[in-house]
Structure formats: C-alpha cells, structure tokens
Amino acid sequence: MPGDMRCDVAIIGAGTAGLAAERSARRAGATTLLIDPAFSGTTCANVGCMPSKLLIAAAGAAEAVRRAATFGIDATPRVDGPAVMRRLRRERDAFAEGTRAQIERLPAGIRVKAKATFGDGGTLALEDGRRITAKAIVIATGSQPNVPKAFDAIRDFVLTNETVFELDDLPGRLAVIGAGALGLELGQAMARLGVKVTLLDEKDALAGLDDAEIGGMLKAIMARDLELHLGVSIAADTVDGGARLRWSGASSGEARFDRVLVAAGRPPALHGLGLETTGLALDEHGTPEFDRETMRCGNSGIFIAGDVDADRPVLHEASAEGAIAGANAAAFPHVEKARRFVPMSIMFTDPPLAIVGRKAADDLVTGTADYRDQGRARVEARADGMAQLRAAPGDGRLLGATLLCPGADHLGHLLAWSIESGATAGDLLARPFYHPTLEEGLKPALRAICAQVGVKLPAGSDEEGASGA
Ligand SMILES: Cc1cc2nc3c(=O)[nH]c(=O)nc-3n(C[C@H](O)[C@H](O)[C@H](O)COP(=O)(O)OP(=O)(O)OC[C@H]3O[C@@H](n4cnc5c(N)ncnc54)[C@H](O)[C@@H]3O)c2cc1C
Ligand SMILES: NC(=O)c1ccc[n+]([C@@H]2O[C@H](COP(=O)([O-])OP(=O)(O)OC[C@H]3O[C@@H](n4cnc5c(N)ncnc54)[C@H](O)[C@@H]3O)[C@@H](O)[C@H]2O)c1
After folding, report:
1. Which one of 186, 316, 334, 412 has the lowest number of neighbouring Cβ atoms within 10 Å?
2. Which residues are connected by disulfide bridges in this protein (predicted)?
3. How large is the average pLDDT for residues 206-230?
4. Is the Cβ atom of 310 under 6 angstroms away from ligand 1?
C-alpha cells in the first residue's frame, strides 16, 4: 500500500521509555520509526511527576508559613487557589515544552503520528491503513488511570492525574480514592493548601507498606492532614450538585464532595494493541511476559519498556528500560543482558517515604534509627518518622532500606548508591558524617547492624552520637 514503511526498529509510544528506546536503537545504527498518536510530550512532564511536585511545592510553602509560629514567627498563610494552579501550569508547561522540543529535534522522517496495532505477520497496522514492517518492535505505551465502574455515576465530578492539574481553583472538599503514592502525595498537598480532604482505600495499608511499625507511623502522620478511611468499600452517587460517597467496612459513613480524585492505580496501556495476534505469552492482566535484563518478550523480536510492563513504574526505570530495549532491538536477534538498578521508589510526601532494595525478610538483619528525636530534624521542627536498614547477616552488607523521615528522598539515594557499590554498614560508619545533619541520623541503624553481625565498629567511629545527632 502507498505509504507503507520499513525500518529496523519501530517503537510504539513516544513517552520517556519510547524516546529512550528510539535514541538507543538509533545510536546502535538502526533505522527507526517512533509512533505516537499525539506527540504531546511525556506523561511525567504533562500529568505526572512534574505537576504533582509543583503542587507539593506550593503546599510546602503554605505549610512553612503555618509552622512559622513554632520558631516565634507570626504569620498566617492565605492560599490563592487560582494563583497556585496558574503557577503550577506555567512551570508544568515549560517542562512539557522541553519534552516536545526533544521530540521535534528528532531526525526527519522518524515520527509517525498514529495509533499502532499489531497486525498480521509481525507488521504494525496504523489507523490510516498504512503498515510498518520492522525487524524488531518496542512496546512503550505507558499506563493510564484506572477509574473503577463504582464511580461511573459521578463521572462529572471525577478527577484523575490527567485532569486534576487543569482545575482553575482548588476544590473546597475533595475525596481521594486510593492510598498509593499518587493519592497520598496529592491528598496531603491539597490538604495543606486548605482543601478538606478525605482519603479512602479498599485496603488497610498506605503506600502498600506491610511493615506494621513504619506503616503505623505513616498512618499517624497522614491522619494529621487527611481524614482516612482504610479497608472500606465505596459506593458513589450524586447529590446537591456534588458527589456523595458512602463507605462501609472497617469504618462506615457518607459525605458530599465537590470533586473526587481517583488515584486507584495506573494499569498498562495495552488495550487495542492487538497483542493477542502476536503469539506472546501474556499474564493474567494481558501483559506480555518479558526478561527484565533484556526487556525481550519471550523469544520474539518484540521488546517492552516503561510503565506498560507493570514492573517498576517510575521515571528513571522507564528511561533505563527504554535504553536496554532499544539497544537489544537494534542488535536483534543478538540480545545482551543488562545490569538493572537496585529498586528505588520515593513518595514525595512530608516526610517523604523511600523504599530501596530488598524488602524485609527473615534472612536479613535490620537496624533502625528514630527520627522523632534526631538533632537536625529537631532544629528544623520536622522531627518525625524512622529509618529501617536491612543487611546480610554474614557481613552486614547493605541490601535494603525503608525510610520515612525528613530528607528520605536524599538519604534513599545515599543508601541505593551504597547498596549498588556493595558497601557494608561498617563501611558507611568508616566514612565522615558532618554534624548536625540528617545523614548522621542513620548511624544508630548502622551501629545496630554491626552489633548484630558481630562486626567491630571501625576505628575512629564513636559508639555514641554527638549531642543532638
Ligand atoms: C501523578 C504522577 C506522579 C508521578 N510522579 C513520579 C515521580 O515523582 N517520580 C517518578 O520517578 N515517577 C513518577 N511517576 C511515574 C512516571 O511518570 C512514569 O513511570 C513514566 O512517566 C512512565 O513513562 P512511559 O514512557 O512508560 O509512559 P508515557 O510517558 O505515558 O508514554 C507512553 C506513550 O505511549 C503513547 N501510546 C499509547 N498507546 C499507543 C498506541 N497504541 N500507539 C502509539 N502510541 C501509543 C502515549 O501517547 C504516550 O505518549 C508519576 C506518575 C504519575 C501519574
Ligand atoms: N513519587 C512517585 O514516584 C509517584 C507519585 C505518584 C504516582 N506515581 C506512579 O503513578 C502510578 C499510579 O499511582 P497510584 O498511587 O494511583 O497507584 P498504586 O497502585 O500505587 O495505588 C493505588 C491504590 O488504590 C487502591 N484502590 C484500587 N482500587 C480501588 C477501589 N476501587 N477503591 C478503593 N481503593 C482502591 C489500591 O488499594 C491502592 O492502595 C504508580 O505507578 C506510581 O508509581 C509515582
């Protein structure tokens, strides 16, 4: 058919993973085609990481004013909702423009504006009837909001991450469905901007935390800003120009809300891709089975990267997976295993939550540090939470951490890098810790690990912290 195209590597989806895959395949010498129906920039910049962090930054400014009295400073915040949303969109648009400019800088002829579906004989069919034949294909279609059917009746009041940042003003009363990173980040930020927020989840955990101690702390911290109803099932209808939610289970009640933010997960965007025609093995959700070190689906010439594979739905992994998938697609049928990062997820609440490496398990030793009485955190009136470090029983080699404490977003990196470099608790204690910092708050956890594994503290490492450490 006229307009049919051929290339070495076709990439479906021009988000973070797809753009990385295209760059990596082209760098490896492949001819590429990048297919997307919109080319409107990445999810991260438009409706994800960046606008959510902008809302959180505004909430942080309001909270700083609110807490000023602790330091003897008299101030009261007056939140101008429209101004908050204007600044958010202005900055967000600049980030989004940056990702669109990146797409526009692609060499001529690479962009194919269309929705793609797998067709016969390994070709891709485009909506306009054209076909693409490629030696290898990368699926990088991302994810999309899950709005359960229970909320159909209040459709006009439902917000998702794709619409909430378009609000002209902050709502008066907001329900948030879902206590994952999205619901907690935006719920807490909205509350600190003066919105009355009720957060509901069908499960009894926040951010999927199964550790009773840290999970309990997170609940207590979140309950300062949010009305929490966990372990409930929810029914919705409309009332008095708003949405009425009724919940029952661990608690029961009902209330009217101006808007309902549904943050109930973002499943892979696989619908309409025609994967059933590919012969790939699919899991119970319809996601192709793939090798995490090559990003290859089975023994096929199809690769997958980013949120669509439902593995590690965070930005730096989308980018890394894209690079691996692109390089292997270019070299197909020769594929190489790549080293993957230690898993790291960060939730940008206050305090933040960072989860790194291996989860708690019976075969690991743990050391904890309490940040409710930590020096630097107290100085700044943000003493809260704790750190749990996990290590190998033999030598105290660091393997994982859960940090719910001020600075956890930075400390989480420190620990991820330490784990990647194979450092032990003793190795970290042999390094300098400036005083007074949040970093030195980790020392009790490191010392506890050394004590349990029978490693003597390194020379020069004091067993007691400085006053206020
Ligand atoms: C509110 C929110 C906050 C977040 N905050 C953070 C954070 O702070 N830190 C962090 O690391 N991560 C964060 N994330 C996660 C991060 O945004 C994602 O992991 C990342 O954007 C995934 O990139 P991707 O390339 O897989 O998908 P996307 O960027 O969504 O790209 C997918 C592309 O595929 C295209 N597409 C879909 N179907 C087809 C088709 N059939 N044919 C052609 N093209 C198609 C789409 O148009 C889109 O351009 C956040 C997510 C959300 C929603
Ligand atoms: N800082 C970050 O990295 C960050 C921030 C925000 C979002 N994200 C990403 O965005 C994606 C979406 O985030 P999310 O928090 O929506 O997903 P999630 O899967 O982490 O959490 C969804 C929550 O919704 C609950 N839920 C699902 N259906 C429900 C129902 N019918 N009723 C009540 N509760 C229900 C689940 O129990 C769960 O707690 C994730 O991939 C996440 O990684 C990342």
Report:
1. 334
2. 44-49
3. 97
4. no
